[in-house]
Write a structure and sequence with these properties.
With about 300 residues, the chain is mainly alpha-helical. The chain has ten helices and two strands, in the order H-H-H-H-E-E-H-H-H-H-H-H.
Amino acid sequence: MHWFNLHSAVSLTYSFLLLSLTWMYLPYAKRVPLWQVSVLLAVGFALSAHLMMPIALLPLLALSALIQQQQNAPRHPLSGIRLLLIALISVGLELHQFPGFHPYKALDHVLLSSHSTAYTLHLYVDKPVMGLLLLAWLQQQKITGKYTLARTINCTLYTTLGLFVLLASVGLATHYIGFAPKWPDQLPLWLGAALLSAMAEEALFRGLIQGKLSALCAYIRLDTRFAILGSALLFGLRHYYAGTLYMLFAVVAGIAYGWVYHRTKRITASISTHVLFNLCHLLVFTYPALQVLPTPT
């Protein structure tokens, strides 16, 4: 396959994934599920670009079927087993553990500022499709006590600001990041990838895991803040590859995202907080981290 054709297929794959997320929140989305058509087109282009092989369809089809069965019969005797399988498959897709998926390296060891560590961006198909399937399931659930749009925006912005000030202070004090304001040329590409990644992580860790832990806490009469902490700890553990300090940052961020979701009852609020916080990091500080320079001798 020529480079131009491969590049076009990759671009169309992620364009349709982003369109799926957009169409899911249109007013007529429940009557005309355009997001499903968009996901199918994205998967088709992913297959043509060899971002995924036919065997990679198996976990996606299994997850879709289990979600459909759980949605149709949530009180079935086997619902607990189905829920466990949904969680296991979702985590496997989140961690890229299923065979047949091949990421596209969109950025390779790019220095976004003079003293930053090199940044490599891989574009995946398994993670965003998983997130879209979970997000669609969340959309069908009846959730009471949602904040109004105005209160949701206020909660999102204030939480993002508080989280940014806290972790920026710790990051600067520990020399994990450095001050490096910028407007990188790669911003549109980064923003699209960040939106899909945050969507998938929030659908999994807040929508599925925190949501089910909250229901369990309510059933055993335990404070639902334990559900926020539990999902945040798992969220931090998911970032084990970046080191202990980054894991701690992720736990704190996970608590903030979980609190926003708990307060607003809107997964879009935690997704927005997640993306905005990462965007502030990118624009204001060294990204992804501060390069450790050798000590002069």
